[in-house]
Every structure is written in structure tokens, then in C-alpha cells.
Write a structure and sequence with these properties.
The complex is a heterodimer of chains A (about 210) and B (about 260). With about 210 residues, chain A is of the alpha/beta class. Chain A has seven helices and ten strands. In chain A, the strands form two sheets. In chain A, strands 1, 2, 3, 5 and 6 form a five-stranded antiparallel β-sheet that branches. In chain A, strand 1 and strand 2 form a beta hairpin. The radius of gyration of chain B is 21 Å and the shape is globular. The chains are: A alpha/beta (about 210), B mainly alpha (about 260).
Chain lengths: ~210, ~260
């Protein structure tokens, strides 16, 4: 089995220690653990927006510290817990994010496909300032899912969604990633989602010693 | 044209009575800044008296070393004031600001004194007041620009993190913040240019007219001064932010938000 990520003796700022782990390619891995156990930090270490203070983290067998970080972040796409949308319409948000990546903007049908994947059915010209928290999170998810990537890191993607929508969204995303052979890593507190969708689980514990 | 009427000390002191009006309004509106008003007025008086003594000495004994020392002190103080409200930025950013303020200011003053007026750079009668106006405005512009840049970045942490995760280059992420800060820094100068001559007769022109200079000459100086100030503010703020923002991210494309 091919591993996309592997970590050994990983530490961040001397107060978060991670167990050694492997993340298998094309599988759905859930990261669970209580608040303060460093789940979100781990995803930031994986896309190199933070650097570990100790240990090694390998992406496709290569030390992350030696990777071209911009290319890495385009392949290892982190979708953070707190969505950010620019002022403007849903379509304009796709356009703005793609322009920041210097990438061609997808056509409207492609945008709709990703929005529908995230159970968002409002028109593309909807002003994002009028959206609810859950709707914003789904538009944000759709924009990031439309980026070509090898692995998606989802930090609490369903935090602002009701149970039923959360289930449908994760089901759609997992289906999409399986079809496209994209690895999925999800942080979630929702044990029912873990039971239903996880191929593998990494349990984190809060470090006691500083 | 007549020469200027010298102010007599007794009559001059009357002007301080006006501060009572400011203090009274502050008291009525419960603005707790009376102490600051007194300190600022006293500091201004002392600083200007000192400047007056020093300038009188320099004008009587013109020497390049004296003029240069005065200009260096002036630039140092301008840098200090520009950095005073922006303590949170990193050390390299501060060095960039210092170099930008001094470099842009020196370049514009040199161009004005030698190129436009056509006198030696070390002619204290010209270089000191011109440098004072250029440096003063540059200091205010840079301080305002850097403050706007820093505060907007702090407010837009979510946006910055989202764009980092999207794989955007730090320079592209920070560029809109730089543009906005540059615009904020330049607006007061441009606005004052719009109202000049109609709403206000600016300080330099007023001073020259009071001391007997023909208004037609004073106007030429003032126009040249305003364009020079605008350029110095733009150049110094642009250089501070353009090179300063490069100190905010590392080789791993991680942006360090102060």
C-alpha cells in the first residue's frame, strides 16, 4: 500500500507531540481527538503553512521541509475550519480564488457541479454577504474542491451544517475523491461520520507535559 | 513689498491664550486630552526655540558639516516618529522604513535644491527648510501607510490564511494590502493639493509672502514644494511597503502576521 504522508517523532513548539502515523493514498482518513490535541495544527504542518519544531513529515516519501511549498499547497489542499469568502457573488469568489492561483477559471457548469457536490443550490450570482454560516462554508468547500489536488485536508468541514446535510456533503465528497483517486483527510468531532466514512482513523491525545 | 514686522514678545505671548479655548472645548466635551495639549504646546515651543537658536547659528556660520548634521538629526527624528506608532513590525521591516524615508527624502531634497532652485546642497537657507517640509510630510505619510497596512493585515487574518491554503504566493496575497495602504498615505497630500490656493494659502507660501517675497515667486516655490512632497511621500511609502512586506514571509512562503 502506498503512503502519501508519514510522520515520525513529530512535535510542534514543544507542546504538541504527535504519534507516528501513515496516511494511505486514495483512502479516507479521519483525525480525531479532544480540543487542544493539535488536530488543526497537524493539517497546517501537512501543507507547510507551519513548520514542525522536531521530527520529520514526509509527503510522497520526500521531507516536507525540502518541498517547494507553493506547489505542495496546490497538491495538498487544506480547507480550513473558518471559511473566507470575498465580497461579491459566488461566481466572483471562484474567479478571485483562481486568479490568486494564476490558474484558468472553470466554466459555470463546472462551478455548479462543485457547488452541488456540497449541497449548495443557489444561483451563481448570489451575493455571498447574504449567505448563512452553513452556506458560506459550503461555497468555500466547493471553491477549494474545484482546485486540482492530490489530497484534500478538511478541517471540521461540517461544523456549521445540520446532521443530515453534513452526512450528504461528506458522502458526496468521499464519492468524488474515490472516483478521482484523491486522498481525503478529515478532522471531525462527529463520531457517526467517522463510523460511516473512515477507512482509517488517527487518534490524537492532548500532551500533558510541556 | 515691505519686510516682515517683527513680533514683540509681549504680544506674541497673547497667542497662548487661544489654547484656553481649546482646553475649554475639551473640558466641555469631556475629551481627556488637556494634559496632552499642554505637553504638545510646551514641547513645540521648546523644540522650535531650539531650532531657532541652532538655525541662527548655522546661518551665521554656514558650514557643510553643520548643515549635514542638522539634516541627519532631522531625518533620524522623522524615522523615529514614523516607527513610533508601528512597534509591532519586525526588525527588518523597520530597517526598510528607515532606509526608504532617508533615501527618498534625500533624493527629492537634492533634486529640489540643486535641480530646481539651483544652489549648493549645503546652502542652509534653502536645504534646511525644504528638507524640513519634505521629511515632515514623508514621516506622516509613511507612518499612516504602514499603520494602515499592518492593521488591515491583522483584521484580514482569515483571508490571508485562506489564500495561503489555496497555494497563492505571499507577494500576491499582500499586494492588495500594499495598494490600499499606499492610497491611504497619499490621499491627504493629494487632497491638500486640490484645495490649495482656494481654501488655503499653505505655510511655506504664507511665510515667504510675510517676509516680503513676491507672491508670483512664492507660488512657484509652493507648487514645486507640493509636487516634491507628493513624490517623496509616494516613493518612501511605496519603498517601505514593497520591500517591507518581503520581510513578512520566509523561504517556506509562510506569512508571519505581527
Amino acid at each position: 500500500m502506498e503512503h502519501i504522508f508519514s510522520a515520525s517523532a513529530l512535535k510542534f513548539m514543544d507542546f504538541i507531540s504527535y504519534p507516528d502515523f501513515l496516511i494511505e493514498k486514495n483512502k479516507t482518513t479521519f483525525i480525531c481527538g479532544e480540543s487542544g490535541s493539535g488536530k488543526s495544527t497537524l493539517l497546517k504542518l501537512m501543507n507547510a503553512s507551519l513548520s514542525p519544531s522536531q521530527g520529520t513529515l514526509l509527503y510522497m516519501g520526500k521531507d516536507i521541509a525540502k518541498c517547494d511549498t507553493l506547489r505542495l499547497r496546490r497538491n495538498v489542499s487544506l480547507i480550513s475550519q473558518e471559511p473566507y469568502l470575498f465580497n461579491g457573488t459566488v461566481k466572483e469568489n471562484f474567479e478571485t480564488y483562481f486568479s490568486y492561483r494564476d490558474a484558468p477559471v472553470p466554466d459555470e457548469n463546472t462551478m455548479r457541479k462543485y457547488l452541488s457536490l456540497c449541497c449548495f443550490d443557489l444561483p451563481l450570482d448570489t451575493d455571498c454577504r447574504n449567505l448563512s454560516g452553513g452556506e458560506k462554508q459550503r461555497v468555500y468547500l466547493a471553491v477549494f474542491l474545484s482546485f486540482p489536488a492530490e489530497i484534500f485536508l478538511l478541517d471540521e468541514p461540517t461544523a456549521a451544517l445540520d446532521e443530515q446535510t453534513a452526512f450528504r456533503v461528506i458522502n458526496n465528497i468521499k464519492g468524488y475523491c474515490t472516483e478521482k483517486e484523491i486522498t481525503l483527510v478529515i478532522i471531525s468531532h462527529d463520531r457517526s461520520l467517522v463510523t460511516e466514512f473512515a477507512d482509517d482513523v488517527i487518534e490524537l491525545e492532548r500532551s500533558t507535559g510541556i | 513689498m515691505n519686510g516682515i514686522i517683527e513680533l514683540q514678545i509681549k504680544e506674541f505671548l497673547l497667542v497662548y491664550l487661544l489654547l484656553i479655548v481649546v482646553a475649554f472645548i475639551m473640558k466641555r466635551c469631556r475629551i481627556d486630552k488637556t494634559k496632552l495639549l499642554i505637553v504638545a504646546s510646551m514641547r513645540m515651543t521648546v523644540q522650535l526655540m531650539l531650532a531657532g537658536f541652532i538655525l541662527t547659528y548655522i546661518f551665521k556660520n554656514p558650514h557643510p558639516a553643520l548643515t549635514l548634521t542638522y539634516l541627519i538629526c532631522m531625518t533620524g527624528f522623522a524615522i523615529h516618529r514614523a516607527l513610533a506608532g508601528n512597534n509591532e513590525i519586525n526588525k527588518n521591516f523597520k530597517i526598510v522604513i528607515a532606509l526608504s524615508v532617508s533615501g527618498s527624502g534625500a533624493l527629492i531634497v537634492l533634486f529640489f535644491v540643486c535641480g530646481i532652485v539651483g544652489v549648493s546642497f549645503f546652502e542652509p537657507q534653502y536645504v534646511i527648510p525644504i528638507a524640513g517640509m519634505v521629511m515632515g510630510n514623508t514621516m506622516t505619510g509613511v507612518a499612516l501607510g504602514v499603520k494602515t497596512f499592518r492593521e488591515n493585515i491583522k483584521e484580514q487574518r482569515l483571508r490571508i490564511n485562506a489564500l495561503i491554503n489555496a497555494g497563492a504566493a505571499p507577494e500576491n496575497i499582500l499586494l492588495p494590502f500594499m495598494k490600499q495602504a499606499l492610497e491611504t498615505a497619499l490621499l491627504p497630500t493629494i487632497n491638500s493639493m486640490l484645495g490649495m490656493g482656494i481654501v488655503s494659502l499653505p505655510g511655506m507660501m504664507t511665510g515667504q509672502i510675510l517676509s516680503g517675497t513676491l507672491p508670483s515667486t512664492a507660488i512657484l516655490y509652493q507648487i514645486a514644494m507640493m509636487i516634491s512632497i507628493c513624490t517623496a511621500v509616494c516613493l518612501a511609502t511605496f519603498a517601505s511597503l514593497h520591500f517591507g512586506m518581503k520581510t513578512m514571509y520566509n523561504s517556506k512562503n509562510q506569512i508571519i502576521i505581527p
